[in-house]
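Holo prediction — protoporphyrin IX containing FE.
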Amino acid sequence: MRLWKLPVFLAGMAPLAWLAWGVYREELGPNPVEYLTHATGDWALRFLLVTLAITPLKRITGWRRPMLLRRMLGLFSFFYASLHLLVWLWLDRELYWAGMLEDVLKRPYITVGMLAFSILLVLALTSNAFSMRRLGRNWQRLHRLAYGAAALGILHYLWLVKADLLQPLTYLGVFVLLMLLRMPGKRN
Ligand code: HEM
């Protein structure tokens, strides 16, 4: 890894370190599993939105270098989404597969979360140079699905939230802004 990327890598690991420290010190409040589910979901979405902000940033400022960080940031989103899924599967549902399947089929916000995760999985698996070469122009088309994953992630959040809408609506506002900055004639 190039040295200038190191601070971004460390920033990506910081939430994990923070959560691990919280688990170790037993400082995650009365319901640590819920805390971990929420925190990992939030970080997955934040890293995804930051990843999507890189191209508009280049267009507005002409600064190209952050484009080289897109892959790492996108992978951090996938990483936190995987932790989010793992916490739910393992700590919340305790690997009770029948119950999980029922959740996926019967609770729309879980279905939508699964869809978002499936997209992130495909994007992570094809984020390497080999896939870029193999897929050619289709690679860019495929990776535009990152917008779909963000939209589904936000929908997932809006669907599950019971009272405080401020945070999911803030994510939605950022997402809409990023979409507007991508409008016609501004394609990557
Ligand atoms: C893999 C399938 C997924 C499952 C099973 C799942 C499940 C959950 C559950 C059970 C909660 C907490 C619900 C509650 O407390 O009432 C939650 C919250 C959340 N999830 Fe997911 N999720 C999934 C995928 C995703 C993905 C891919 C993202 C982001 C891209 C995401 C972002 C969030 C956010 C932002 C929250 C709310 C965090 C907060 O309250 O601060 N989830 N999810």
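READOUT: The two ends are 25 Å apart (CA to CA).
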